[in-house]
Amino acid sequence: MSSNTDPQQLFASMSTFVTACMANHDPSHNPAHVHRVVSLARRILQAEQLLSSTSYDPTTVNLAALLHDIGDRKYVTHVAEAAGGNDDALDPKKMVKHALLAHGADEGLAEKVQTIVSHVSYTTECADPAKVKELIAGGYPELAIVQDADRLDAIGAVGIGRCFTFLGAQGQKFVAKGAAWEMGNSIEHFGDKLERLEGMMKTQTGWKMAKVRTERLREFRSWWEEEVSLASTYDIQQ
Fold first, then answer.
1. Minimal CB count within 10 Å: which of 50, 92, 189, 204?
2. What is the DSSP string of 125-151?
């Protein structure tokens, strides 16, 4: 492909790449998650273009949303196996740029999408929130949309499903050695992270959507606590 690859053709090509990379991921971070994030990003973009004077590049939004989990430390070995190639293909900080260049994207677009993808995650933002603000204000406004879209898929009914799915697939790695591995670990994650995401939304559209989905999290947690409380009144020794 030339550097003048049509955006739709590039997106289709990268979508095939993402599906191959994530084929062995558990359902909490599989291609279906990615395509929900793309859809959410497009919805936010459409709304923000009417609400805000900020100029967004749709191609950057689409590609960054599509590729946002490539290089995720939790799954990077799966992606590396699918990507193959040189050291850049195996480096989480360069994977996206390498893949885009290999599929015909120009250098500037590949670099921009890589920068956005490298700063989407909650953990990365918590480590350096000032950097994320700096990027959004300094030429990477698309980061705000992609972050919001990814975080919206972590909350609400879908987020609850993903949370329990991730616990079942990966949870044992995150509990202390010898500690019990329980469904309640997912509920703890609600308070530790998921219910905080509403306050980290960057766009007006994302915030409004997050408000609704966060309320669903809280209501589910209240149901959970009620049912667990009823069960805990039973003395197993009797």
1. 50
2. HHH-HHHHHHHHHTT-THHHHHHHHHH
What are the residue boundaries of the structural domains of the chain, listed by start? 7-230
For 170, the enclosing helix (H) or strand (E) is helix 156-170
* Residues, the chain: 238
- At 112-164, the pLDDT tens digits run 999 999 999 999 999 999 999 999 999 999 999 999 999 999 999 999 999 99
What is the structure's pLDDT at 87? Answer: 58
On average, the pLDDT of the chain sits at 90
State the angle between helix axes of 142-152 and 129-137 in degrees (0 to 180), rounded to the nearest 10: 130
CB 55 within 8 Å of CB 141: yes
Which pLDDT does position 1 carry in this prediction? 37
How far, in Å, CA of 166 to CA of 73, rounded? 14
Question: H-type helices in 29-153, by residue range?
Answer: 31-51, 58-67, 76-83, 87-90, 95-102, 107-117, 122-127, 129-137, 142-152
Cα separation, 35 vs 73, whole angstroms: 20
CA distance 151 to 195: 11
Give the integer Cα–Cα distance in Å for 85 and 190: 39
pLDDT given at position 170: 80
Task: Give the C-alpha distances (Å, rounded to integers) separating 40 from 17, 70, 148, 236.
Answer: 20, 18, 8, 46
Cα–Cα distances in angstroms (integers) from residue 49 to residues 7, 54, 118, 202, 204, in the given order: 19, 7, 24, 14, 11
Domain range 7-230, CATH architecture: Orthogonal Bundle (1.10)
